[in-house]
Design brief:
alpha+beta, Beta-lactamase, Lipocalin, 8-stranded antiparallel sheet, 6-stranded antiparallel sheet
């Protein structure tokens, strides 16, 4: 699944001192430890070169209630990293002669709307089908505790109009991968779970990978958590029949290294199909993977976000590098940390995040910042006071506490961003500026 929990993701680079990168386990550990120390990552990290770990370590707790630490063999929900296994399954079935990615989805779904007739499996794999994303529906969070196997989930979006004509553009859709899961089950005669276990996990001895059923007694499973304001709480329950082939799997960093090695060896596909697997369509999206060049490094990657978990896998085949970050506390900078570690492993200079020091301000000073600030026509950042703590909440997103570094400048501890409140000549607060990803976004007070 792919759920956005916050608009705050990155802190201004000027807050970080540059350190000359050295490709050593100690330097990699320093970077990951800094993210953990700053409250921006809790989970398991793996950096590997040519199939051999350079760093394999846990940071923080797999279960806070029992004080159980994260370890390299801790099992995490993967969220949308699941999609690459689903895409691989479709191509394996094509090699078996049981389907073709040029087939219409209507060949496998009944009843099938007329508007779906032009939609091919290729469209679904590349998010170019136009099928609306059901996890974006207004009632999604109200229904996510209820069992919904693929047929029931498909019924939720079957009669909705397409967002665009198939192939016209790219828009990320979990609905498309639920449809692909239904195709795998119909064509193979097995459940999605049984198919990926028999065809991928067992041949690769990925013994710590599978379909996450909450009712199973699963050793070394991480619990998922989310911050609510300044309070850590258990993540909201999600019935795992819902994500299915779009986001239902769990794994470990060590098992995902086995997966990476199998991909490097082209174990499951012919060279031609392997190339198709990693050939991007629109918006750099291939079959369950994003293929991009960042900082001069060709990277094959995918992230995941599901209740309580944020994940990232990054492969740099030309350098023989793999980075996996699996987190069980939201918000999380699993993706940013993975990028830092990949750059470090490739010999680049990367700044070490520094912990910003907070100061205490008088209550009367904090009170003047309470209000609503308009970042965009339909996007409001609300600021409220909870005791002596300022709490922010963007439209449709969780609450995030912010801390003062000066009388007007504040920062969230759980992610990289800075908010500066603006005042007029009389001292009245007139707006704020959100500094994020190198962008300064002004928001007048409403």
């Amino acid at each position: 699944m792919r759920l956005r929990f916050s608009t705050f993701t990155l802190l201004a680079v000027s807050a970080f001192p540059l350190v000359t990168a050295q490709v050593t386990p100690q330097r990699l550990d320093q970077q990951a430890q800094a993210y953990f120390d700053n409250g921006r990552f809790n989970g398991s990290v793996l950096v590997a070169k040519d199939g051999k770990p350079m760093l394999s370590k846990g940071y923080g707790m797999a279960n806070f209630e029992w004080n159980l630490p994260v370890a390299p063999d801790t099992r995490f929900r993967l969220g949308s990293i699941t999609k690459q296994f689903t895409a691989m399954s479709i191509l394996m079935l094509e090699q078996d002669g049981k389907l073709n990615t040029a087939d219409s989805i209507c060949k496998f779904v009944d009843p099938c709307p007329a508007s779906w007739q032009p939609i091919t499996l290729h469209h679904l794999l590349t998010h170019t089908s136009g099928v609306p994303n059901f996890t974006s529906f207004p009632d999604y969070r109200k229904t996510m505790t209820l069992a919904s196997p693929p047929a029931a989930t498909i019924a939720r979006f079957r009669d909705r109009p397409l967002d665009f004509a198939p192939g016209e553009k790219m828009s990320y859709s979990n609905s498309g991968y639920v449809l692909l899961g239904a195709v795998i089950e119909k064509v193979s005669g097995q459940s999605y779970e049984a198919f990926v276990r028999a065809r991928i996990f067992e041949p690769l001895a990925m013994r710590d990978t599978g379909y996450d059923h909450p009712t199973d007694v699963l050793p070394r499973r991480a619990a998922g958590y989310e911050h609510s304001g300044s309070t850590l709480k258990n993540a909201d329950f999600l019935d795992m029949t819902i994500p299915h082939a779009a986001g239902s799997l769990y794994s470990t960093t060590l098992d995902l290294m086995k997966w990476d090695q199998a991909l490097s060896a082209q174990k499951f596909l012919t060279p031609e199909n392997y190339q198709r697997y990693f050939t991007p369509e629109k918006n750099n999206y291939a079959y369950g993977w994003n293929v991009v060049t960042r900082d001069g490094i060709r990277t094959i990657m995918h992230g995941g976000g599901i209740n309580g978990f944020a994940t990232m896998i990054m492969r740099a085949p030309d350098q023989g590098l793999l980075v996996v970050t699996l987190s069980n506390v939201l918000p999380s900078q699993a993706g940013r940390l993975a990028q830092d570690l990949l750059n470090l492993a490739a010999g680049k200079d990367v700044p070490v995040p520094q912990k910003l020091t907070e100061i205490q301000l008088p209550l009367d000073t904090l009170r003047q910042y309470v209000g609503d600030y308009q970042l965009a026509p339909n996007f409001i950042l609300s600021v409220r006071l909870d005791g002596t703590q300022l709490i922010t909440q963007a439209t449709g997103q969780p609450e995030i506490p912010i801390f003062a570094r000066s009388e007007t400048a504040f920062f969230p501890k759980v992610m990289d961003a800075e908010i500066t409140f603006e005042k007029d000549a009389s001292g009245k607060v007139t707006g704020l500026t959100l500094n994020q990803n190198g962008r300064k976004m002004p928001a007048p007070r409403r």
